[in-house]
Design brief:
Blueprint lengths: L1 H18 L2 E9 L4 E3 L4 E11 L7 E7 L2 E8 L3 E6 L8 E9 L2 E4 L3 E6 L5 E4 L3 E3 L3 E7 L7 E8 L5 E8 L4 E7 L6 E12 L2 E4 L6 E6 L6 E4 L5 E2 L3 E7 L9 E6 L2 E7 L3 E7 L6 E9 L2 E9 L1 E2 L6 E4 L3 E3 L3 E7 L7 E7 L5 E4 L3 E5 L6 E9 L2 E4 L3 E6 L6 E4 L5 E3 L3 E7 L7 E7 L2 E8 L5 E6 L6 E9 L6 E3 L3 E6 L3 E8 L3 E3 L4 E9 L4 E7 L7 E5 L3 E6 L8 E8 L6 E2 L3 E6 L2 H33 L1 H20 L63 E7 L6 E7 L6
Parallel strand pairs: 2-9, 11-18, 20-27, 29-36, 38-45, 47-54
Antiparallel strand pairs: 1-3, 3-6, 4-5, 4-7, 7-8, 7-9, 10-12, 12-15, 13-14, 13-16, 16-17, 16-18, 19-21, 21-24, 22-23, 22-25, 25-26, 28-30, 30-33, 31-32, 31-34, 34-35, 34-36, 37-39, 39-42, 40-41, 40-43, 43-44, 43-45, 46-48, 48-51, 49-50, 49-52, 52-53, 52-54, 55-56
């Protein structure tokens, strides 16, 4: 009994444990507002709904996540937990959720999107708050409580309220730095910056940062440009132009005085600069003083007016283009005719060669007098020159030489002929003109001592063409013509044909005529006849004709094959004909011999066959032979009945058959002394011959010759008869 009680006590706790059962119904994440202003707080509340089998306390493990990354964990017996983010920044925007674990069971809430509006104010700092003109201002804009990426916008406001902007993107840092150059005229500069961000949750822009002031120190003052010359400057007066500036402290400044784009004078490390000169009309114009230090430069300009002392001289020639040995006169004059020292100068060289100290000059010109002439006038040290006058002296052209570029006086029809025409002497420019016969082809002007090259394409066939060229320049009487040149035009070989007689077939041992014809081409033409696959020509001859005939004798079977013809001339283009197939056939006597041989063979075969057939027919019809023999016996019996008693012999030939009822003895058995002198008699016997191919038996007439041999006996006349029949012995 005690044992039973003990077992009940031991099972009681397990029974109680089986009663503590839970299930998580729902987990929910809440926030007061899904949109939060930057700098405010985000309060996340995770609430769990659990069903239990009894009333007992359990521990809840709460986990908060942002964009599926762990954010915060806590444990509580309450059914909810809170997580606060303060201050909220743009980087805190995202997707939040929470999960709850209790008694080995867990469940998560749905995602909750929270967006933080705006960015915190960035902070702007300057590396230096006092700079000098020409230096740069380095600025740093920072978003310490935000996370990249950012786009920073920097702004510079100068004294004239001109706004200058710079943009800088930063992907990994929450700050950016830029440099602004300090320009001429900058004094107090204002800077500020703005930060922007663009992400999956949207675009935001911060407020403007704090304003940073930068003071600019002027290293030197604006330059001053003055002239020490009289108020009215006349040519010949001395002019002094002075540029000055004031330095804030000793700087290595540079001062330049320039007119238009030409620098007249410069200095470095000084605060003043002077330019001095004797005034001329060319000194009229705008002068500029420029002071530079690094990137800073300041300029000042002034205009200077110089009155003319005397006008520019004018040089007048009698002619500008002259022939050799022609007279040239030059006159120099000045408007207003002031007293001046005048001289006439020829260039080159650069400084010129003095020809005469006078206002006029006359010379009989040669080719080397070609050049540029000026008139130079001087008053009170002021020197002026006239505009240059170009004088060209022309030497006549020499007789031109016409030549062919490839040194050949032959050309192929359709090609381009290149001719060169050149005069070895003569003043350029020289005009070269090419003529074909009396027709002008082209004119070329050459501006140096070289040749003119002409191109003439040959499109029509003339066996001989005549060319010449003319050369001329601006010399009054210069026009020279070259010797005439004859060019031979060669037409290339075209339209070749090839044949033979007889065509295609030649008797063995006979001859064949090959004929090669070209449709066109300049003579002479070289003909060559080849057999296919042979390198060496069978025939090679140059003809002053457009055709050639070649006879090949003793044509044999080895000569059978394909033949072709090639033709070429001086045009250096070879054309090939079509292939001609030639066969070898038997000669006439060979054909006759073969025919006779065949006929003889046929005749012999026919004779043998006929003999064999006839012999066979005899063996098949012995009764007919015997009938023939009986008829002969009856004829003989008739003669015996008239009182003559004879023995008769038969020679039926090779088909003879002995009859038992009517025996006939051979001639050898009856030979005797009287047989030698027997008299021969001939008797015609009509017999019937059976046709071996047709039925009934065909009747015909044959002649049977009987030999009757007579003997001189006392008792009576013994006659022996020999009968020879037709070949069938009937």
């Amino acid at each position: 009994m005690y044992f039973a009680v003990l077992m009940i006590l031991l099972h009681c706790p397990s029974l109680k444990a089986q009663d503590n059962v839970i299930t998580i119904n729902k987990v929910k994440l809440t926030v007061p507002s899904p949109k939060v202003k930057n700098g405010k707080s985000i309060e996340l509340t995770c609430i769990v709904d659990i069903s239990k089998s009894a009333s007992f306390q359990i521990q809840h493990a709460f986990s908060f996540y942002k964009d599926d990354s762990p954010l915060y964990n806590t444990t509580s017996e309450q059914d909810r937990a809170r997580y606060k983010i303060f201050p909220a920044r743009f980087a805190d925007s995202g997707s939040y959720k929470c999960s709850v674990e209790a008694s080995g069971k867990s469940k998560s809430s749905n995602d909750l999107v929270v967006q933080v509006k705006g960015l915190s104010q960035p902070k702007l700092t300057a590396l230096k708050t006092e700079v000098t003109e020409g230096e740069v201002v380095t600025l740093r804009c920072e978003e310490p409580e935000e996370k990249p990426p950012f786009i920073f916008l920097f702004y510079k406001i100068s004294r004239n309220q001109q706004l200058q902007e710079k943009k800088k993107q930063e992907l990994k840092e929450n700050f950016a730095s830029v440099e602004f150059p300090v320009e001429e005229g900058d004094r107090i500069l204002h800077f500020h910056c703005i930060a922007t961000v663009n992400s999956a949750v949207g675009f935001e822009k911060s407020e403007a940062s704090n304003i940073t002031l930068v003071t600019v120190v002027e290293p030197f003052s604006h330059p001053k440009l003055t002239s020490k010359s009289p108020w009215n400057v006349t040519e010949g007066d001395r002019i002094d132009i002075v540029c000055t500036t004031i330095l804030a402290r000793k700087y290595e400044i540079e001062i330049l005085i320039q007119k238009d784009r030409r620098i007249l004078n410069s200095t470095r490390g000084q605060n003043s600069l002077t330019y001095s000169a004797i005034a001329t009309v060319e000194d009229n114009g705008n002068y500029t003083c420029k002071v530079e230090l690094g990137r800073v430069s300041k300029t000042t300009s002034m205009n200077l007016v110089v009155e003319e002392l005397f006008a520019k001289p004018i040089l007048t020639p009698s002619l500008t283009d002259l022939d050799e040995n022609q007279r040239l006169s030059l006159w120099c004059h000045i408007n207003g005719s002031p007293k001046a020292n005048v001289s006439i100068i020829k260039r080159p060289p650069k400084n010129g060669t003095l020809l005469k100290t006078s206002s006029n000059f006359t010379i009989q010109v040669q080719v080397n007098d070609t050049g540029s002439y000026v008139c130079r006038a001087e008053i009170k040290g002021i020197i002026k020159e006239s505009n240059p006058v170009q004088i060209t002296v022309y030497a006549p052209v020499s007789e031109p030489v016409l030549s062919v570029a490839n040194l050949s006086t032959e050309m192929v029809l359709g090609e381009t002929l290149m001719l060169r025409c050149q005069s070895m002497s003569g003043t350029p420019p020289i005009n070269y003109t090419l003529f074909r016969g009396s027709r002008l082809i082209h004119t070329i002007t050459v501006f140096n001592n070289t040749y003119a090259e002409f191109r003439d394409k040959q499109t029509k066939l003339n066996n001989l063409r005549e060319y010449r060229c003319e050369a001329s320049n601006r010399h009054a009487y210069a026009k020279r013509s070259s010797y005439k040149m004859n060019i031979t035009v060669i037409a290339p070989v075209r339209n070749i044909s090839f044949g033979s007689s007889p065509h295609g077939e030649v008797e063995d041992g006979g001859y064949i005529n090959f004929l090669c014809i070209v449709g066109e081409g300049s003579l002479p033409i070289n003909f060559r006849i080849f057999k296919e696959n042979e390198q060496k020509p069978l025939f090679n001859e140059s003809k002053m004709e457009t055709r050639v005939v070649w006879q090949k004798e003793s044509f044999s079977k080895q000569d059978a094959g394909k033949y072709f013809c090639e033709a070429s001339n001086r045009a250096r283009a070879t054309v090939r004909s079509n292939l001609l197939t030639v066969k070898v056939i038997l000669a006439s006597w060979q054909k006759g011999f073969i025919a006779l041989f065949v006929l003889a063979v046929i005749a012999i075969a026919a004779s043998g066959f006929w003999w064999y057939w006839h012999k066979k027919e005899k063996g098949k019809h012995p009764s007919m032979e015997m009938s023939g023999s009986t008829a002969a016996t009856n004829s003989t019996s008739e003669k015996q009945a008239s009182g003559q008693n004879h023995y008769t012999e038969f020679y039926p030939g090779p088909g003879y058959i002995e009859d038992s009822e009517n025996p006939v003895k051979s001639a050898d058995e009856n030979k005797g002394p009287d047989h030698e002198s027997a008299e021969v008699e001939y008797t015609e016997v009509e017999v019937s011959t059976p046709d071996p191919y047709k039925a009934p038996v065909k009747k015909g007439t044959e002649t049977v010759y009987s030999e009757i041999r007579k003997a001189n006996n006392d008792s009576g006349e013994n006659r022996h008869s020999r009968i020879e029949g037709s070949p069938d012995a009937t």
